[in-house]
Amino acid sequence: MKPAAFDYYRPTTVEDALAALGTSETAKILAGGQSLIPSMNFRLAQPDLLVDIGGVEGFDRMEVGPEGVMIGASVTQSRVMTSDEVADAVPGLRRALRHVAHLQIRNRGTVCGSLAHADPAAELPAMAIACGATIFIRGPAGERTVDAGDFFLGPFWTDLAHGEIVTGVHFPAESAGTVTLLDELAWRSGDFAITGLAAAVAARDGEATGARLVSFGVSGVASRMTGAEQAVLGFAGGDDGSDLYEAAYGDAADAVDDIHATAEYRREALGALAVRSVRAALAANGNGTGV
Amino acid sequence: MMDTNPGSREVDVAVTINGAQVRERVPARLLLSDFIRDVVGLTGTHVGCEHGYCGACTVIVDGDAIRSCSTLAVQADGSNIRTVEDLADGDQLTPMQQAFHENHAMQCGFCTTGFLMTLESVDSADYQDKERVVELLSGNLCRCTGYQNIVTAVCSVWGVDD
Amino acid sequence: MTVDSPMRINPMISHRAAHIGRAVLRREDRSPLTGRRRYVADLRLPGMLEVAFVRSPEAHARIVSIDTGPALALPGVHAVFTGADLDDVAPFPHKILYIQPVGQTALAVDRVRYVGSPYAAVVATDRYVAEDAASLVAAHTEFESLPAVADLDQALAPDAPKLYDDWPDNYLVNYPAEKEEVTRAFEEADHSYSDTFISPRQTGLPLECRGVLADVVDGQVTLWSSTQSPHIVRTTIAEMTGIPEPRIRVITPAMGGGFGTKTHIYPEDVVMPWISRRIGRPVRWIEDRFENLVSAVHARDQRHDVDVAYDDDGTIRAIRCKAYCDVGSGEIFMPGTAPVFVTGGCITGGYDFPNMEVHHFCVVTNKTPAGAYRGFGVPEGLLVMEGIIDQVARRTGVDRVEIRRRMVLQEDQMPYLMHGGGRIDSGSHAKSFERAAELIARSLERIRAEYADDPDVRVGVGYTNYVEPTTPTYHLTTGHWAGYDSATLRVDPDGAARVGLGTTDLGQGTETTAAQLVADSLGLDPDDVTVVMGDTDRAPYGLGAWGSRSAIVMSGSILMAADRVMVKAREIAAHMLEAAAEDVVLTNGEFHVAGSEAPSVSWSQVATAAWVRTVDLPRGMEPGLEMSGYFEPPELEHLPDASGKVNAAASWSNGAHAGVVSVRISTGELKIEDYVVVHDCGTMINPMIIDGQVQGGVAQGVAGAMYEEFQYDPETALPRFASFMEYLYPTCSEVPEMTIEHFETPAPEQPLGVKGCGEGGTIGPGAVVACAVSDALADLGVEIKATPVTPSAIRQAIREASGPGGGA
To answer: Does the beta-carbon distance from A23 to B3 stay under 8 Å?
Structure first.
């Protein structure tokens, strides 16, 4: 389990990084490498060029302001997770990161790398969608931004074209009256989710007034749960939850079967997670405490 | 625009490892775990899975515990690395090493060095309840002990109610 | 029993404090704590090259051609060998005559029968280049795919593709059995029913993978291998290669666990010295985790089709069990046929249940060969027995604990003859069960109260009573070796002792326990004892560490050797004290005449006379102070009698496990809330190490109960696993805390009364968890009869029990 040979390049500017990517069809960007290097060790990935963006100027930038949090491409998950400022502005991030692998992985893995990798069972893409994050991309044609909701297209497949780099992601500050959380079922601590749900739930007077609910680990891509988002309107903590359950169950129509769980399990689990997440969000919203 | 691939197959890696300077020209694909074991010759860092799951290869790079099997040696260029060989002061074990011994927190010992490096890297003040300790230890796999004695050893050193 | 094998410490020795029975801290801890423990992957020799094996990507195929040219052309590649190159190596031995021969060669030659089967080896400057070359060999191998067999049903179908063309079918073993009294019981019983239990494919998965370093110089082979049985590796290499056995030295360096998987003799053990001899350089192969998952033995993979006859009062009258083991391709030495017989023999657990009929079948499929894993068939049987008891309780309305109470073995039944010939020498079965039930009842109440307000959560309890056969015969497993082990004990001129043992240490602390045994048997301090194992040149021939045997065989062989050393030492001391030998005793390490502590002579004086100042020896005495003991455990039988019965274990430890689980109905989330072990392995040499064995064993049992399974594609027989993302090795968060208590019922026939404790922990959890989940969900009609019990499996069981929809 050793990587096949490749050329290594460590640019210091985004321009050089882009230029290098342009020289090879199979070039890969190396950020934290926590998914890439294991898959190279299995020789599932055999890039001929690795462009290590760890030294690119400005990519280590993390800024917290009243609008939210801007996270550069080489900012590690641990750095985000341990920042109290970030947790105050975007509480969902720390709540999601607690489920991301283990300390040693988060110490190297980056937030942007996880988004670009787009594992369908990963927490950060789902949380980015739930939070309404914006992804910043640089390519040969210049800079563009994409809403997280439009970024993830399928398993390990995003809107990112070859030759483009995710330079950063912006998570807007959680607005008053909204609670953002993440719940998941994984057989082992730190694993990717078998079924997961990231939720941003707005409420007034104990009733949900709107929500962004995002499933992950269920189908081939983190997805908005349109049925459940509808069903959640007017939901109160005391409701029996059967409508919300059924709607969430329906949102998982394209759930996958794999060695860990059946598709039917994922549908049921997503139904159950929707009810318990929304209840938890309402409870947190009601008493103003954390989740 | 560049016309040709600007990368190279071989790279210079200079690190400080357990206080000593090491500078070597190595293949770009060399994993940090293999650099530490084969180039530097510090075999206390073990390789258990080479895909970032078991934690046997955990070392400390610039203060952070990381998986050396999922890191290229070249990514550690310029950094300060600590391995298990840096813990004991000659014959004098650290309190954590001593607690592992006294609590029978190891059997075959293959995972032990990874656990010790994870523990060495954190501030115990951040892990003052047992649930947090268990969560921290979950990043390292052990097949022999069932973990209970490891938890006990850590709690005894960090003053956490077991 | 050998006439002179002592059962206890020589009564002429007295000591300040005995060491046996004390939680002596481990002497082998410092090296792993400081990173100085040397595993095989840490060893390198000057001029050493690295080897990578090329493994089949096909489940079942003919090898049409292999073009090694492109690999050989790669810079850094020294050689490529294919199966055909090893034509001077004999196939693996076939020693068990009632099983079909698989004709396994060191490397596959023209046919591969599982993904992972090694068929070529590449030698290169380093592992990176070796893997580059191995990929090239694989890319230039032409296979002709053959129809693959993915599971038992496919293998046994009338038109099934055959793995071995010259066999009549895919049975490696086909061993039906009928018992008249069982047939009669079915006719007489009030009721009967049928059921099926499944223990899936799992493995021991030591954190250290396998590895071999071979160096052949002047015809002398030195082999470092991460093996539990170095002497057996040596004998097998000699037999297959024709190299004289004395010219082979096998060394087991520090091992990173084994759990049974490293008892087997693997192709790499034989191919590596062959390569080193051929190319004239030291060569090393370190298995990576992918190789380990597909090519180190798997285990379990049993299905049990049972018929149960019972009466309205909850009496189970008889059980008929067809026990099937899917042994994969069967291409492994020793073969994986023994565990299912152990399942059959031990299926009745700690219960008095003679009316058992077991038919044994081993079936080949296109999967990784199956073999040994901690528990060795016993956990699979316990899942069946406890499941049956709970099912009968449910059907008759009799309390589950009450049925167990009626059936559990009582002290006055000892020795108890089991249906298959196992002779349980002693134990605390009933007492252990009552204690476990008492302990778990307390937590059950507390945990029920904790969840009383949550209608989504159900709480249940599971009980088990098992026996752990220890120190088994190897004859039924290998068809060759049997049961003894050995110790060579020497006292050096400075008075310190050195013992060489035929057993090995795979991480369980054998050095420490052996030192305790030697210390007490010579009246020394453990610090004065050096223990040598795992080196065929430095330690006597022995069978290695497996089958929870080290406690008994070390105790026996050390006591034998020590007794012989003491006889001589006493004569020397008597001569120096000018006294009669029978008047000399040993107190706190000094020899003196009984009744007066002065004058005295020390061990050092005695040993100096024996080795150095031989002028001080009694006239005519042979110099030296080194003795051996070859201990064959009493009670152990190696071959079945005419009725097929055999007591294949020297002793029988026992235990009762009980556990409380909570199950969340909506998601199937399962948590072990409390786990209790009441354990009896006879006399305890080192209680700390025994607790460690129990804790680690339970953790592996829980892994099997809730997490681990090797799955294969049912169409192609290709593995659906390649890493720890698919094979779910539990972390600290998944393994429950447990309470452990012990009884100590000494083994009446074994030295010091020890029994062995390596596997008991692993046996209980599968049955505990399955039964506890069934109990928790009893009102939904859920019955769990297969492991691992995952949330998805639980939800499926709920759906199947209550119909579609399942509900929030």
So the answer is: yes
